[in-house]
Amino acid sequence: MQPTAPGEKHAETRPCLAGTLLTRRAFVAALAASAAGLALAGRLGRSDEARAAPLADDVLTPAGRGAGQLSPLITPNAAFYIVTKNAGGDPAIDARGWRLIVDGQVNSPVQLDYSILQQLPAYQVVKTLECISNLAAQCELAAFGCDLISTASWTGARLSDVFDLAGGLKGDVVSIAVVGADEFSSALPLDAALDPETLLVYQMNGAPLPAAHGFPARVLVPGRYGMKNAKWVVQISPTSQQFVDWYGQRNWSRDAIVNTMSRIDVPSAGVQIPAGPQTIAGIAYAGARGISNVEFSADGGASWQAASPIEQQPGRDSWVRWQGSFNLAPGQTAQLVVRATDGSGVLQTDQFSLPQPNGGTGWHSITVRGG
Predict the structure, then answer these.
(1) Average pLDDT of the residues of the chain
(2) Considering all CA atoms of the chain, what is the largest pairwise distance in Å, rounded to the nearest integer?
(3) Dist. CA 184–CA 176, nearest whole Å
(4) Is 357 in contact with 270 (CB distance < 8 Å)?
(5) Quick check: 95 and 4 in contact, CB under 8 A?
(6) What are phi and psi of 161, to 5 degrees?
(7) Would you place residue 8 in the very low, low, confident or very high pLDDT band (cuts 50, 70, 90)?
(8) Which of 21, 24, 177, 230 could form a disulfide linkage to 243, CB 3.0–4.6 angstroms apart?
(9) Helix (H) or strand (E) segment spanning residue 236
(10) How many beta carbons lie within 10 A of that of residue 126, not counting itself?
(11) Cα–Cα nearest to 159, from 132, 131, 186
């Protein structure tokens, strides 16, 4: 058993793209006319002094992707986006001393260590994570743009199996409080916690979970923004009352269900390219609802063409890569737009909104010119 993955912490905490670090507070201050008020309800076990502490700035590092390059189906660990509230440094946990407390509304509170976690039945899912701060459109408004989204193959134990180790849940459970070693907390509704693809994961793309992504264990829950997928988990407590988590206390979305998004990766925005037949390609994501259709326009939305999936969707809660083609005349300026329809048949909204408090929306659009 390896307590840490050699070199992972240092590799993962570097910016994936130079000069692209931005705090969530700076982002909100730059783009919003007023700041949201803070509801300083306490998290489990914190003192009044801790509850009254000022909101820490979040560090947001976009996924590593070159301009004009289609995202790979699976994002390498070193290129996966990172968001942390711990500007002073994330927890550094030795797996040999790590313990997970499962208490609250369970029949037999228990602690488990890293080896016991790995002895539970292992499940593997391919899942996309998207930060709620990710822009869906007007990517130029922030340094991280529309790149706070990545996809990996994850391995771990079902959260329901972890509850079984604690004798199962009591009948009055309505919410699950998940607490990290950094005192971050996440609230999950009961149905989400019991979803068979809600996992306590310890591997990412076949390697031990990198330090920046929550080593030794983090929660993954389908269909929710990254803020619900707590890292460095040390306590899971089912509750008989609704639990208000770290971001909920700060007036962000309580349920954090992802909005449908789509993005143009190819070609790059603003470039001049040779006239003639052109390829357009990108990603689309709608959480656990899936994607049923992607369309693109080369004339600013006056007409639409169906895009084709590049490969089969690799997981229930993963992005889809898509592609199409259009013609570009010499000297022509084309406004390219993309939109997606989720698996329930609902078209992505064209209404632009900033991420706070419920996630960004809008159709991604870029302009290119024929040479």
Answers:
(1) 87
(2) 72
(3) 14
(4) no
(5) yes
(6) -70, -35
(7) very low
(8) 177
(9) strand 233-239
(10) 18
(11) 186
Q: What is the mean pLDDT of residues 23-29?
A: 42
pLDDT-based confidence at 58, cuts 50/70/90? confident
121, exposed or middle or buried, with CB in 10 Å at 0-12, 13-18, 19+? exposed
**C-beta of residue 215 within 8 angstroms of C-beta of residue 234:** no
Pairwise CA distance, residues 63 & 86, whole Å: 19
* SS (HEC) of 270-321: CCEECCEEEEEEEEEECHHHCEEEEEEECCCCCCCEECEECCCCCCCECCEE
Pairwise CA distance, residues 57 & 153, whole Å? 29
Model confidence at 224, pLDDT cuts 50, 70, 90, reads very high
Task: Quote the CA–CA distance of 167 and 314 in Å, as a whole number.
Answer: 34
For the chain, state the CA radius of gyration. Answer: 21
- DSSP codes of every residue in 341-358: EETTSPBPP---B-STTT
Please return the burial class of 161, using the count of CB atoms within 10 Å of its CB with bins 0-12, 13-18 and 19+: middle
- The stretch 275-296 carries a mean pLDDT of 97
pLDDT at 161: 98
pLDDT(267) > 80: yes
Q: For the chain, list the domains and their CATH numbers.
A: 8-250 (3.90.420.10), 261-370 (2.60.40.650)
- Yes or no: say if 14 and 53 are a contact pair by the CB < 8 Å rule: no
Angle CA(61)–CA(9)–CA(23) in degrees, nearest 5?
Answer: 25
* Spatial separation of the C-alpha atoms in residues 150 and 156, rounded to whole Å: 18
pLDDT of residue 279: 97
> Which of the 8 DSSP states describes residue 196?
T
Encoded tokens for 216: 């030794």
Do the Cβ atoms of 161 and 119 come closer than 8 Å? no
* Structure tokens, 241: 């009352």
What element of type H or E holds 323? Answer: strand 320-328
Strand 233-239: give its sheet, edge to edge. 110-113, 99-102, 233-239, 175-180, 185-189
pLDDT, tens only, 347-362: 999 999 999 999 999 9
Distance CA 70, CA 310 (A): 11
